[in-house]
Amino acid sequence: MAARSRIVAVCGASQAREIDLSAATAVGHLLADRGFTIVCGGGQGVATAVADAAHASGGMCVGLLPGEDGADAPAGVTVPIATGMGHLRNTLIVRSSDAIIAIGGGYGTLSEIAFGLVLGKPIVALNSWSVTRPGEPQSDPAVHRALSPEEAVDWVERKLV
User: Measured on CA atoms in the order 23, 73, 77, 113, is the torsion positive or negative?
Assistant: First the structure.
């Protein structure tokens, strides 16, 4: 029986900055090249960039779409799942993953980071949110800050050994 593939959620904004799209592309290639399965929100921006890169590298990307039509998924999404749940699907993205890479992002990305913290998932932030608990002087150390796509993927890979 083959071992289950490790699943990494890649989260980020649909209206992403160019720096975040570039990072998501690099992360998609790196994860696919190392045999990870990617799960994302299946929409535009970071999700499209990571899915297209994974597909180009021969990897698998599951897209948990907000709407009710799997045909809305970007071409790089290997397995589109139309949830019809809007932002509520963020919990499914996090729950189904072994680790999370947050790239840039808006409040949806922040919610995925928060769900990941609640569930104790390894989380790495690349150009993304820092989370500070009330009364604490520094960002939560449970969210690792990465300076490059390579550092983010290396960190996740070490956490999932």
Answer: positive
